[in-house]
Input
Amino acid sequence: MTAALLGAAGVAFLAINTMPGCKPNTTKTMVTGDAASKVYVKPGTHDEFYNFVSGGFSGQLAVYGLPSGRLFREIPVFSVDPESGYGYSEETKGMLMTSYGFIPWDDSHHPELSQSNGVPDGKWCFINGNNTPRIALVDLGTFRTKSIIEIPNSAGNHSSPFTTGNSEYVVAGTRFSVPMGDDASRDVSIKTYKENFKGNVSFIHPDPESGRMSIAFQIATPGVNFDLSHAGKGPSEGWFFFSCYNTEQAYSLLEVNASQRDKDFIMAVNWKLAEQLAKDGKGKRVPGKHYSNWWNEETHSAETTVYEDVLQLDPKDHPGLLYFMPCPKSPHGCDVDPTGKYIVGSGKLAALIPVFSFEKIQQAIAANDVEGDFGGIPVLKYESVLHGEVKKPGLGPLHTEFDANGNAYTSFFVSSEIVKWNVEKLEVVDRVPTYYSIGHLCVPGGDSKQPWGKYVIAYNKITKDRYLPTGPELTQSAQLYSIEGDKMELLLDFPTTGEPHYAQAIPAELVKPREVKFFKIEENKHPFVAKGEKETRVERRGKEVHVWMTTIRSHFAPDNIEGVKLGDEVYFHVTNLEQDWDVPHGFAIKGAANAELLIMPGETQTLKWIPTRVGVWPMYCTDFCSALHQEMQGYVRVSPANSNVPLEAYTLSVDAEL
Amino acid sequence: MKTNLIAGGLLMAVISLLSACGGGADNANAGPPGAAGSPPGAAAPGKSEAGLFTAADITLGDIDQGMVEKGRSTYDVKCQACHSTGPNRVVGPGWKGITERRQPEWIMNMILNIDAMLESDPEAQKALEECLVRMPNQGLSKEEGREVLEFMRTL
Output
C-alpha cells in the first residue's frame, strides 16, 4: 500500500464513519449465531487449510491455519531472525547476501504457491522482497527458505513473484523505473526521467528439482511503474499480464502527477515467444550483477552464485512480444479468472472494474486494432479488447480472486468492502463490509485454474478499535468470511504479524505428506559435523578456535573448554544428534554479539563468538528439551592473549574416577 | 517443543488409561506375562506388551564380530551420548552387563519401538521414572538395532 493511498484512505475512512447514511453495519448485525462453530477447530485436531500470509515490512512469511486463524510459524525469509539464528549463524548469512552486501531486512508482499497444471501443488511458496529486489522460494517440506535470487536492473520489486502454470517461471517487474547500464548511464538528473528512465520485467526460472533460481531473461520496457501481475491460463496460457501506473512518467509528487491520465495500462507479454527468442540467442547480455543464494540441505549451509550480467530482450527488435491495453485510472490488481478467458484490472481510483477478453485481445492484435504506441509498444484500443465493465461496484477496487462458480471477489479499499460479482454477466451479486479498509484478499486457490473456494479472507490495512489497544502501534488484522452460501458471512477476526499484503491458502492435505521431521545424521555433510561424541574436539587455527560440539538430551559435548585467549574468534559448530521429531536444541553463550542457534535434529549450525574479557563464560541450551534441560550447560575459560593455558575440551566420563 | 515434553508424558498416560477403559485391545491392568511384577534381573520369558519383537524373533548364537563392529559404529553416532559402556548412567543406564539384566527382545523393542514401550510396558515406564528423560527414537533400522544388541553382548 502506498503512502499516498493510506493518506487518501484515512480521509475517506473518516468520511465514511461520520456520514450516517454510509456507515458500515456493526459487528453485531454482521455475525450470526453459529459463526463460532464454523471456525472452531477442536483441541488436538488440524485446520483444513494452510494460509501463507506475507509479513509486509517484517520481511517474513507467516503460516496460519484456516478456519481457526491460528498462527503456526513465522518463516524467516528476508529478515534476520535471532530466535532461530537465521542470518546470524555462519551457515545462514549467505542467504541474505546481495550485490550490495549483507542485507538483513526487506519488505515482503506477495506469497505465491508453486503450481502444476495451473493448480497450487503444495511444493513451494514464493515471495517477493520489495526494497532490495529479490524473490525467495520457501520449501514446504521444511518450511524454510530454500533459495533467494536478487533481481538486477530493478528498483522496487512489487509485481512479483507470480507464477506460470507449471512454475516454469516466476516474474518480477520494476515498480520504480530507473536509469540502467554502466555508471555514466546511471548518473543522470532525475529530471531526465522521460529520456533516461527505463523499466523491465524479469522471468526467473526455479530448477524443478533443487529449487535453485536463475534469471532466464529480462524484457526492457518504457519507464513506468509496474504494480501487479498474473499469468494467463487455459486459452491465455503462454501470456503474462502486468498492471502499470505512472504512464505520465512523473518523478515527483506522484500522488497528483501520476494520476493525471484517464487511463494507464495493462501490459500483455507473450512469454512463450520471449522464451523462444531467448533460446534462439536473440537477446543480448547486459550489465546486471546479482546473487543467487541456495540452501544446501546436505551441508546445512548457503551456497551463493554471483552473476555479472543478464540476458535482455528488447521489444523494439521483436514485434509481438509486448502490447499495452488501456486500463482506467492507475490499475493495481491484475487478475486472470479460472477459465483464463478474462483479465480483471482494478483501477484504484476508478469507480468501475474493467474486464478484458483474451479472445478480443488476440483479435485486436491480429487486426492491428491499435490507437497508437507508447515508447514504441503498440497500444490496443480499449473498446476492442474489453469484455465489459462492472459499473459502480464500490470505491477504490484493488484486487480480485475467484471461486469455481464463475464469481469474482474484489476488495475495495476506500469503501472498505468485498464485492462479489459474476464474471460473465458483470453483475454485482453481494457485498460485505470489512473492518477496516481491506487491501488484498484471498480465496483458497483463488488465482488458479481450480479454486477450492469455501472462504474469502480480507487482509486489512487499518485496525483501529477491533482488538484490545496496545498503544499507538496496533496489531495487523485479517477477517475470514464464508462464501459457501449466496451471501458472504463474516466468521472470524484474527490478528496477523507484520503488515499482511497478499496471501494464499491451500488444503493442508496437499502439504502435510511432504513434511520433513528431522535431518538424517548419516546424510549430514557439513564440513564441521560431529557424528557422535567421539568426533567432538577443539582445534586452533591461528586466531580461530573451532569447536566440534554435539547436543543430545540433556548435555553438550564438550561442555568444558579451556585455552581460549583474548583476541581469538571461537566457532562453535554444534551438531544436534537427536533423530526424532520436535527435538531442537538451542545454544547460547554469554556476551555473544549475534544471536542464539536453534539446531534441528541431525543438523549442524555454527555460532561465531569473540570473547571480550578474561574469565569463565557460561553457555547453555535455550530450548526446553527435557526434565534435565536446566542442567544442559557448560563453561568456556578465556585467558589473556599471552597465556600458556593449553587448548583442551572435555566432558567428564560417568565411569571415570572423580 | 519446550515444556510440552512433560505435558506430553502426562497426556500419554491419560490416553493409555482411556484406551484401557474404552475396552481397547491393550489392557493396562493385565500386564505382559512375566514383565510386570518380575524383578528386572529375573530371566522372564515372554514378550513386551507393545513389542514388535518376541523372544522367538531373536536368535542369539556365538558372538558375530562383524555385527559387533557395525553395532559399535551405530552406538558411537546415535547412542553413546546418553549410554556409557560402563556401569553408570549418563542420561540412560550404562550398558555394562545390560544383556544379563534385560531380555534381548525387550532391548530390541526399546531401541526400535520406544513410544509404544513407554506407553504400556511397566519396565520401560519404571526406567523413565528413574531417568526422567524420554528415550528418543533415533531412527535405527531393524538390522542396526540387532547389531547394537550384538555389541551390547560384548560389554
Remarks:
- Residues 1-49 of chain B have pLDDT under 50 and may be disordered.
- Helices of chain B lie at 4-21, 65-78, 98-101, 104-112, 114-120, 122-131, 142-153.
